[in-house]
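> example.struct
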């Protein structure tokens, strides 16, 4: 993966000088809160692996993971409605922001965790610099599209979706994206399922290649978005 390029503020100005100090640049490193999906908590192998990958791709000061109350401390059972997880999610964000005050906040989530992240970022009193959705569940097993949360978003968002993800038909997502009022972007993992996993190599790309491409897109997106954060 390429090194994280410096922000516009950190590059040379017209006189050849540097317009941002190293200290100022380091303060722009985001604090990331990474939320799990309904199929496993923060200790799930997928979450542990992606936490490490995201730490590098985002240049984060720290990547925080946590367990929603319904599955914390060894609890088992189906998750409640996503709306009921917002308060506990915000509580975890507050801990992260308190520890790394002054750093931009980036919310990342897998599936259900991405939906709750978007709900949090839709609140006007929550200062979220960006959201990254890893497999956004636009369509549930039953019922209409769950697009209201996306239309209420107050922060830029990047969708990372598998092309074979039945929970997020790309043609339906495209329609929603056109109606959204915030900056939004999409990276498609060709042949990927809801967990971005390919069933076979696609166009010569291995699973590692596909994930590296997704992480590179996440990196570019955050560099651009965080460059605009005051």
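> example.seq
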């Amino acid at each position: 993966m390429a090194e994280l390029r410096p922000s516009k503020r950190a590059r040379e100005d017209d006189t050849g000088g540097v317009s941002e100090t190293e200290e100022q640049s380091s303060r722009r490193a985001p604090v990331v809160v990474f939320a799990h999906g309904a199929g496993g908590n923060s200790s799930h192998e997928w979450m542990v692996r992606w936490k490490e990958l995201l730490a590098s791709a985002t240049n984060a000061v720290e990547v925080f993971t946590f367990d929603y109350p319904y599955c914390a401390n060894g609890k088992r059972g189906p998750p409640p409605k996503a709306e009921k997880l917002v308060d506990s999610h915000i509580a975890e964000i507050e801990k992260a922001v308190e520890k790394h005050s002054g750093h931009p906040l980036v919310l990342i989530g897998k599936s259900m965790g991405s939906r709750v992240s978007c709900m949090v970022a839709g609140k006007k009193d929550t200062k979220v610099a960006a959201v990254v959705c890893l497999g956004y569940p636009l369509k549930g097993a039953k019922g209409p599209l769950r697009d209201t949360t996306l239309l209420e978003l107050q922060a830029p968002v990047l969708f990372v979706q598998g092309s074979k993800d039945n929970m997020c038909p790309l043609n339906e997502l495209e329609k929603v994206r056109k109606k959204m009022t915030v900056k939004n972007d999409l990276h498609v993992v060709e042949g990927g399922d809801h967990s971005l996993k390919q069933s076979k190599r696609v166009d010569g790309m291995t699973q590692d290649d596909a994930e590296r491409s997704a992480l590179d897109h996440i990196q570019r997106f955050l560099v651009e978005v965080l460059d605009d954060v005051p």
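> remarks
The longest strand covers residues 105-110.
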